[in-house]
Each structure stands twice: as structure tokens, then as C-alpha cells.
User: Fold this.
Amino acid sequence: MSQCNINTILYGPPGTGKTYNTVNYAVSIIENKEFKAICAEAYQDVFERYLAYKKQGQIRFVTFHQSYGYEEFIEGIKPVLNDEAEESIQYKIESGVFKEFCEQAQQLKLTAHNQVMEGNKKVWKISLGGSGKNWLKEECFKDNQIRIGWDEEGTDFIEDGDYPSDTLYYFYEGMSVGDIVFSLGDQKHIDAIGIITGEPEWLEDEEDFKRSREVEWIATDIYENIYELNGKTNLVQQTIYELWRLSINDVNNLILKYSQNDQIDVEENTNNYVFIIDEINRGNISKIFGELITLIEPTKRIGAQEEMHVKLPYSKKDFGVPQNVYLLGTMNTADRSIALMDTALRRRFDFIEMLPNLNAVADIKVGNIHIQRLMEVMNARIEALYDREHTIGHAYFMSLKEDNSLENLATIFKNAIIPLLQEYFYEDYSKIQLVLGDHLKPQQYRFILDEKLSIKGLFGRDIDIDLPETKYHLQASAFQEPSSYIGIYGRVENEEVN
Assistant:
């Protein structure tokens, strides 16, 4: 059993492996294994499994930022071009990443012809020879297939990808094995429900409607009214289009209602799904989650004792969060935006602290420079001058395992460590000097040099304002001297001996 609860945030200073460890946590959740057992495996093997789960839709990764909103996360109204009138714009209600992910986690597991159909299924409306009863529809029901026309176009267009119509594009490119298909009965009703089990075929021996796909019909010759489920929108004669207004719950209920076919096995989805939110504290939680902040609570999930649904503002559909969706966030405690973190989020998540791991760099040396000791002393000084939430994580030094050259260490200090300290201490270089031990070193080994600022005559006459008395600048040559790094911790060690 994974040690990660259903809503969890990994928090700590930068470089402590929060994002790195989301891989281990996500795989442990999906495979229902102990986190320690996953960590004991080779990371590359775990990462490959992580990528596989991500590809099949069981893991989703997003990063919050200040512009991220409800429309991207839950649902929103977005403009789309009308294919039939290129200058005309229509507006479509589109699911956001989290709503889409939750719907996928509720997808029924369908097995037809010993083939398991899982994943994010689309729902298509198809007109088999038009509405009502007709010969083509009867043949399709009997032969377990769907068929469309456009025979005069042949199949040459498939090779160059220039589809003569939306219908042909949907049939060849839009539809996938495992998708659900509804047969048009009339404007408000469907007369069959099926699951696509085969790729497109060209039926040379047929006189008309030569384009075919194999379908396992869940139910035929029914008369199901889907007008309300389809957002009070009539079905139209267009041969094929996606029924995007139907929620996954609507589709599940229809399948369960009619799934009496012995050829199709229907099971609920019991797989675990992990939605990862990197930098969760950077987003405006109220703006992003909206009314869903309540639904993510374990006791409010679908099937829980206090199950709750809300009616979404755009689609007017009921929505709930399934129990098999885990939320895993990361939070940088050194980020200045942490003070803005929503209290409602704090109450609904468990927090796992991740601090710098000295053992991770225990075997790293650059010449005579001991990276573990260097990091330990720097962090002790930062903790004394600031707090432990602003220490330096081990991840900054991990590239030294592959390249332990002085040039690489210099690059890490110039491009990462120094800028990080500048941010921590708001350009207070006297404190940065203390962290780097520059006050204990000979001048040639100091990373930051200070000199008295001469302002006499600078402004033409005396001015009555306070000006800094010292100016600071980086000493480039110090980054190439091993003693500059040894001096961070070397003097401390001598004093301890004495």
C-alpha cells in the first residue's frame, strides 16, 4: 500500500527532489506498492513505468502559474471555427484538464472479443443511412459494423491526408478502437449503442456504403431519448460528429442500462489515477478550483459517505471527483508567493516535508572539495541567518556525480547557488558573504568582494540622503580556485578541532 494519501503536497526548499519524487509517489500509488519499495528500485526503471502510465492516461502533470484559471482546469467556453463556413466562429464548452482526467478515471472497462477497451473514450453520433429504419441500418446491426458512403472519392485521399469532408476525417482519424458510437434514431433519440472494435475497411464487394468499421453492438433497436443529456440540443443528419455535451456519467449509465450483450463484459474502473500539480502554491487556488475545493475531500468523493456533486456553471452538468483520483502537489517553501496559499487548500491536503539530503552527496568530491561538508555548513549558516525553508537542496549538486570537474562546480555556483542566495537575502551581500565564508578567506579566494564606496563630489555637492557606504561585486577568478570552496567549511573544521 502506498504511503501517499489521496491529497498530498510535497513541500520543502528548492532542489530537494520534490518534482523528482513525484515519479516515485505516482508509480507507488498506481501499482499500490510501498513508497520505500519503489525508491529501492532503479530510478530509470521506475521512470519508464511512469512514462508508460502517463501515456495511457493514468498520470497527468500540470504546473500552476498566476494566469492559470478555472477554464483551463475545470471547463470553459472556447471559440472554434465553423468548418462549413470558415469565417464563422462557434463557441464550444470544453472540459479542462482536471475534469477530463476525472472523467477518464470513471471510464468503464469494456471487453469485446477478448480485447480490453480502456482509456479516454470519445462518443460519436453516426447516421446509418439516415434516421428511422432502413436497409443499411439493419445490415449494420446484423453484421456488427458501421458503414458510410462517399464511395466516389475512393481511398486515394488517405495517403496524402487531404480529406474531402469532415465525415471522412472523423471516420478515419477521429474515431478510435474503444470509442462509443450512437446510431441516429431521430432528432431526440438514438436507436443503438456500440463500441468500435476495428479499424476502417474498404468493402469492395458491397454495392454502396463501402467504408466500414467493425462494431460490437451493446444494444440495437432501442429508442432512447438523449435530448436532455445532449444539452437540450437536437441530433442532426450530419453523418458523423462527436457528442461532446454528454458527460461520462451519462454515457456510463446508458451502457449499464443496456449492457445485456453476452459478447461484451462491462466492469467499473478500479485503477488508480494520479494528477500531479507542480508549483501548486503559485496558482490562485480559489480561481482555479472554484467550487471543486470541497469535492476533492476524501469524504466528499463519489461513492463516499458524504458524496457530493456540483452543477458546473457552463455545461450545467453534475460533476463529482472519483475516489480513484489522487492529487499530488509540490510546493517550494522558498517561493515568496507561499504566504498567499489558500487556507482551504491547507485543510484538504496532507503535507510531506522534503529537506536537503546530505547522504545524496556523501560520495561526491571535486578534487579535495567535500561537497557534503560544503552543503552542510552553507545550510547551517542559512538556517541561522534566515530559516530552514530557504536552505539549498542536494539536487543542485547532483550533476557532479557525472562530471566532478571544477568547471562544473564553478558553473553551479555562478548560475545557481549565487543567484539563489541573492534572491534569498534580497541582494544583502554582507549576509551572502557570511554564508560563503568569505569573511574567513584571503581576498583572492572570496566569491564576493566589497570595497568602500567613494561618493565625494559624485553629485556635485553634498546631498542630505543616506547612501550605501560599501559596494559589492563578484570575483570571477575565485570560482576557478579550489580553496574558494574549501574555505566555505575549512576554517570551521579547524576551529572545531581546536
Observations:
- The radius of gyration is 31 Å.
